Amino acid sequence: MSSFPIARLRRFRRSEGLRGLVRETRLTLDDFVMPLFVGPSPIPNPDLPGLARHSVETVGDEVDDLVRLGVGAVILFGIPEEKDEDGSGAWDDDGVIQRALRVLRERQPQLVLLTDVCLCEYTSHGHCGVLADGEVDNDETVSLLARTAVSHVEAGADAVAPSDMMDGRVAAIREALDDNDFETTPIIAYSAKYASAFYGPFREAAESTPAFGDRRGYQMDPANVREALRECELDVDEGADMLMVKPALPCLDVIRAVRDEFDLPLAAYNVSGEYAMIKAAAARGLLDERQAALESLTAIKRAGADVVVSYWTKELAAWL
Question: Known catalytic residues?
């Protein structure tokens, strides 16, 4: 039997004040992380300003702006001046990320500095690990990722985020950090990272497009969700402190499934293709960028993410 007209759900939709009073999901800047690209020289990106590239010398100014706006965390991606087969620039003490970390640690000591731990930006072939007979060698790659993570923490990183999708890398990184007296450093595991079509603008900005083949041999099949839960379970067992799902918007069901299954903090990466689509549609006058961005970010939070990595973080700071 209907309860109308006693139950009128529109009553709390009548004004912005009433809607805000009963809003279930709220966006707060404390939950957002801004990705930053650091390379040999700054390269602007007028169409996608969130994917502009900074140099070690200029990234400090960008971070000053972010802190002034209230952004509390960034994640750094490095583009070295030279690449090689093994991606040795990833763990170089004088590497681009290591130098940027030292600059930012001194300049903004309160800012949370996260680093992406992967080899794809550093290898000449663009894959996320070292190659053996044309395939990524999982175990050899894992040892280099652990070495990279230690070098990042030594340079000032607050947490490391392995994004490579190699089996066993969380355990190896945990062991390496602990052996170097960094047992208090958290690991943010890209646990469910799919082989997605939505990474295109990132790969251009990070110069990490594979020279041959693709990453389906190590990144997840977008059709699978039970496998994502297995990946998360393994990462929890290996010592991950936070889980991550990437990409975000095509994987809202995965975010919800992970949230329901695990109690660890959960991040979601609102990736470059998601950002670029809305930017492009807004540029053509097809939708309102701010409204579409806020709706998208709210959906990611509503699905269960505690932390959102997003190229809208700087603009979100101004909107909020």
Answer: 193, 246
